[in-house]
Amino acid sequence: MKRVRVKIFGRVQGVGFRDSIYTKALLYGIRGWIRNLDNGQVEAVFEGEEENIEKMLEFCKKGSLVSNIEGTEIKEEKHKGEDKFRILR
């Protein structure tokens, strides 16, 4: 199992980006969370099989149809055993 923390920069708030990530996380069996940050970025933690984490990271780099990704920051972390994927408010 792998765990990564990712910050996504660009137009990612107010465009349904977190919902898109949530849908992909369910599809790929990813656990963790996603939230908006006060500075306009989005932060997420993904836990799961390495190949599925890579698919999530590729989506984060490309974005949804209405988002505009300017960059990502990815850090690997120690696996903590998240039980589901959720959107934090």
Report on the architecture of this protein.
With about 90 residues, the protein is α+β, with helices and mostly antiparallel strands. Helices cover about 30% and strands about 40% of the residues. It contains 2 helices and 5 strands. It has helices at about 15-30, 50-60; strands at about 1-10, 30-35, 40-50, 70-75, 85. α1 packs antiparallel against α2. The chain starts with a strand and ends with a strand. About 25% of the residues are buried. The mean pLDDT is about 95.
Query: Roughly what fraction of the amino acids lie in strands?
Result: 35-45%
Going across the major beta sheet, what is the strand order? 4-1-3-2-5
Helix-and-strand structural type: alpha+beta
| DSSP helical segment count | 2
How far is the N terminus from the C terminus? Answer: 26 Å
Q: Biggest sheet, in brief?
A: 5 strands, mixed
User: Would you report the number of β strands?
Assistant: 5
CATH architecture assignment name: 2-Layer Sandwich
Oligomer: single chain
SSE string: EHEEHEE
What's the CATH topology label?
Answer: Alpha-Beta Plaits
Give the count of structural domains.
1
Global shape: globular
Helix content: 25-40%
CATH class call: Alpha Beta
Topology overview:
Blueprint (H helix, E strand, L loop, with lengths): L1 E10 L5 H12 L2 E6 L5 E7 L1 H13 L5 E10 L7 E3 L2
Parallel strand pairs: 2-5
Antiparallel strand pairs: 1-3, 1-4, 2-3
